[in-house]
Design goal:
The structure holds 2 protein chains of 2 kinds. Chain A has 9 helices and 4 strands, in the order H-H-E-E-H-H-E-E-H-H-H-H-H. Chain A is mostly helical. In chain A, a hairpin with a 6-residue loop joins strand 3 and strand 4. Chain B is mostly helical. Chain B is built from 21 helices and no strands. Chain B is globular. Chain B is 74% helix and 0% strand. The chains are: A mainly alpha, B mainly alpha. At the A-B interface, helix 2, helix 4, helix 6, helix 7 and helix 8 of A face helix 1, helix 14 and helix 21 of B.
Amino acid sequence: MMRPTSSLWLADEFYLSAHRDYDGRPRLNDAAMSLGLAGALLAELAMHRRIRVDPQALEVSVISAEPPPDATAHAILDQLLGEPSIRAISTWLRYLARSAEERVAERLVRSRVVRQVTTGPMWRKITLHPPMDANDAMFPAVRVTGLAVRGLPIELPDALLVGLAAATGLDRFLLQDVDATGRQHLRAEVDRLPRPLWCLLVETKAVVGAAVLNRRR
Amino acid sequence: MAKPTPTVSSNVAAALAQDKLGTPRITQFALSAAATLTVVAGVIPTGYAVTGINGLPLAFVLLGVVLIVFCVGYNAMSRRISNAGAFYAYIAQGLSRPLGVVGAWLAMAAYNLLQVGLYGIFGAVGAPLFQQWFHVNWPWWGWALLTWGIVAILGLAQIEFNGSVLGVLMVAEILVILIYFFAFVSHPAGGHVTFTTFAPSHLFVSGWGALLVIAVTGFVGFESAAFYSEEARDAHRTVPKATYFCVGLIAVLYSLQAWAQTVAVGPDKISSYANQNGGETVFNLAANTLGQAWATIGHVLLLTSVLAAMISYHASASRYVFSLGREGVLPSVFGRTLPRTGAPMWGSLTQTGIGLVVIVAYAIAKLDPLVNLFFWLGTVGGFGVLCLLVLTSAAVIGYFRRNGGETPWRSVLAPVLAFLALGAAVIVSVINFSTLLGVGPSSPARWLFLVGYLAIIIGALLWASVLKSSRPETYRRIGMGVGADSDRATSMDRAGAIL
């Protein structure tokens, strides 16, 4: 389900919102970022009707093996196909989180939305993905803020983006220019999400919460 | 709330298993929470000084045995419940939700007291040291505020000591405790070693309940092994092993050290010696028997031990608040994180705020940092944990009566024994509370803390009944911690679940 307003996938928009538009450094801590991206990747497959979310058992299952129109989504679907006995949403979130950031960054590089930059001293090199156009990177936040402030109806992908932001703590940034009324409007829209997708977001929030309780090693 | 584990071997299971913790790591975390050198150099001598009773070595042994029996039921339940919030989750599911809320509030009070008390010993021991080393002359509260600031920043930055650094420090502390032990017993006052302080007649004297609380304060930290059951490699074995090892090691270390200190000074003089030397008791003994260098090493390790424990208890308190915020027992704003670091923001700031208020209050009131701040708050916190242990033993019995599936020893006999022993300890401690604080029986301090706990218990019960009538769904989720969100998902409790 590509949006007319943007040709970016949900995980891509989440990635852009979660990183600074001027240098590509993260706004969000690692655990929440990778889990949020994992949630987005699963939501993408659900929106493309390749997987089904069972809201009662909190499980996911593959319903169509037809390759999605994107290599990254295809790779994720393959992972799910390869492990049919693993079904719990939380398990998949934790597993996919391990490589989610890498995969989504690579997709954004492929579509030339970001470029890859290696920086830092010799003993501590890090890879960043600053956006090619900072305006493009800010677009999701600007769009969502505009809709919220004017109380306009919100499409499914944007509601999911807001929900993922709330589940990971990114809403502090994404909705920083939204007032209480606007927030209330967004809340109502997120609460109205189709049940399976809503469950996916709530589970993402639960797993992010559990990660907060984990001790750093 | 059983934890599903994939029984088929798979890439996913293998990958996730890589991040899991083994027994050594979990034991290490639990022992750092126990802050061994802080107890040996802080709690034990001050205990002698304040209570004037010698039976501390035996108290540690007794309590060690009781806690091993307690752990039998505790571990059996940790195999079945997945909630890193531990105590209150067990109590909520084993006894009742209102008691679960009581457990949560008691735990928050206890861990906060334990944490804030540490500022006292850092200031008391650090101030003269730093003056000697760096010629910087600050009062105790100056150093306390400095460490307060460090803990506040690290709390929001979600930084704790690196696991390996903690491991090295912990081993060093234990080595120093052992070295001091051998030094003390090889230089006995009066020329020969006496075991009199182990005699029951030295324990079961008037006021001995105080020693039980002191001993519990020393053991606090062992329960944190169960908090890692979600991340443990093989939770059914790793966590129990770590818990038993921790209790056993602590019991041996502390009873030997408590005894050794009486040997080096003389059982009849330990109380006055500890009174005179305060926080330097152990280090003066070390200097006399081993030389100044070893005393200095001990000083440095004590300060790092205290700092590590401050950070650890700050994290525990923050995470409790976070869990309760996610459940809805506390306003949901407490369940929010700071995006850049993932820290439980309001949980951390709340604990930080409490610390500041207490340090400033004690500074203004010119109270003694070692006795009034460290020892009082630390042991009162320990008393809170003792109450939690009693409730948890009862919860184990209640849980297995409802759910079954365990041997009679684990599900009935051991928890009943633990409940009776720990319950008796609570009663005796309340009776002897003035001895614990070192005040006269008519002193207001004696009742102040007890009334405070009573107020917390009543407040928690009231709050639970308010929740039950005004937000029954939230009431139902008491004890679920961060798992409450999953419950919201399955029970379609939409309103504001995400945003």
